[in-house]
Design goal:
- There is one protein chain.
- The longest helix is centred in the middle third of the chain and has 6 residues.
- 51% of the residues are buried.
- Strands 1, 4, 5, 6, 7 and 8 form a six-stranded antiparallel beta sheet that branches.
- The protein has a single domain, classed as Methylamine Dehydrogenase, Chain H (7 Propeller).
- Helices cover 2% and strands 41% of the residues.
- It starts with 6 loop residues before the first strand and ends in a 7-residue tail after the last strand.
Length: 414
């Protein structure tokens, strides 16, 4: 449903902090060429980060709002604007963990999780042609359900919708002043038997779209590839899955969400569309193997109708890998491009892998600062730069909200 409203936000702009001021850094032994941050700027409540088309601006979800950062000079990232707290018709618009940008438009979605609080559930589209002064366009759109993640592809916004009954992908046309729902795809419609398990077992956590193919990370139900050449009528192509439905009937919430196998959390393809990576967000639960922090699996999808597993990348070790152990090293968000995987592992740091041979991924570089930084994502900002957002949201840890910049090619081996 569309909602007429005025968005209000408090604004703040902070100054960058040179990386020389950062403390307690650890550069791992796999780094042979000084792979370390070029710059760092504090960002309150930082979560997901994405990069604009020009590679000069990063956009961050910040839990109670969003922020824009100038990264044109990666050694001196500068906070342009912070918008928080947000509200719609006097209702809070918060727990925003995801934003997506395409061209001059930014999608801000939330809340990320189910809540009984009287908060706005939906999304707002902003004009960010001036990243220092984002302007809401059209009307806020109220969905009635929480939105953990989304993907913006031109005039089409894909959002994940999770409820007890089903977990559909919902598709909106956002070209005009008022967003319009134009399509849906539901795992339950295709495989009704998944409706018999706890809704968190089949949780639709994220969506990624490239060249008319959408990758849906459906937690323990696996990752599904859809043909979205007609966004109003998504069609099933194939899926990959590490678990069997029969093992999920008696799972409770914690078992469904925390422990391996399964846990398809973030799935994306590379720029050729032929390599799929599936990140598995998981923690040690005291169960049987493969208990522990989740890694990233690679699949050959050169024939998207017939995916083939190529290799697995293990998570960094942790002294206590449990959910509340204060040291998360599980895989989180990443980007695949030009034969390289840029990945985030919370307190496990930022890694670069050469995946030009998907069957034999090679770690090129790794940087972590366990006490201070918990990386939510790693994104490519151009030929020379990677950005990675650090979040303060790890339980029992004191990590900072910030955006870091890295030299993309400094990890290359001679």
């Amino acid at each position: 449903m569309q909602r007429r409203a005025v968005l209000r936000a408090g604004g703040a702009v902070g100054a960058a902090i040179g990386i020389a001021q950062a403390t307690r850094s650890l550069v791992t032994g796999t780094d042979r060429d000084g792979f370390e941050p070029l710059g760092r700027v504090p960002v309150t409540g930082a979560a997901e980060a994405v990069v604009g088309d020009d590679g000069e601006t990063a956009y961050l979800a910040t839990t109670d709002g969003f922020a824009t950062v100038d990264i044109a000079d990666p050694s001196d990232p500068t906070l342009l604007e912070e918008r928080y707290p947000l509200s719609v018709d006097d209702e809070r618009f918060h727990h925003i963990l995801d934003v997506k940008v395409d061209g001059d438009r930014l999608a801000v979605v939330g809340p990320a999780d189910r809540t009984a609080s009287p908060v706005f559930h939906g999304f707002v589209i902003y004009d960010v042609s001036d990243p220092a002064d984002p302007v809401a366009v059209g009307e806020p759109y109220e969905t009635g359900y929480h939105i953990h993640n989304c993907f913006l592809d031109g005039d089409v916004l894909y959002v994940v919708a999770n409820q007890d009954e089903e977990n559909p992908l919902v598709v909106f046309d956002v070209s005009g002043d008022g967003p319009t729902e134009i399509g849906r795809w539901s795992l339950i419609d295709r495989e009704p038997e998944w409706g018999e398990v706890h809704w968190l077992v089949r949780y639709l956590h994220d969506v990624y779209v490239h060249d008319d193919v959408a990758a849906l990370a459906h937690w323990n139900a696996g990752t599904y590839l859809l043909d979205v050449s007609d966004p109003a009528d998504p069609q099933y192509i194939s899926h990959v899955r590490e678990t069997e439905l029969e093992t999920h009937h008696d799972l409770e919430r914690e078992e469904a969400q925390l422990g391996l196998p399964g846990n398809d959390h973030y799935s994306a393809v590379d720029d050729t569309g032929e390599l799929l990576a599936v990140g598995r967000e998981a923690w040690a639960t005291g169960g049987e193997e493969p208990d522990g922090p989740g890694g990233i699996d690679l699949y050959d999808v050169s024939d998207p109708a017939d995916p083939e597993k190529a290799a697995s990348i293990a998570a960094p070790a942790a002294d206590d890998a449990s959910y509340r152990g204060g040291e998360w090293t599980t895989a989180h968000n990443f980007e695949l491009r030009d034969g390289r995987l840029s990945s985030s592992w919370y307190q496990g740091g930022v890694k670069i892998h050469d995946v030009s041979d998907p069957a034999d991924p090679e770690e090129l570089a790794h940087w972590r600062d366990t006490e201070t930084a918990a990386f939510w994502t790693a994104r490519i900002a151009g030929p020379e730069t990677i950005v990675a957002s650090s979040t303060p949201q790890v339980p029992n840890a004191e990590t900072d909200g910030a955006l870091y910049t890295f030299h993309r090619n400094r990890q290359e081996r001679s």
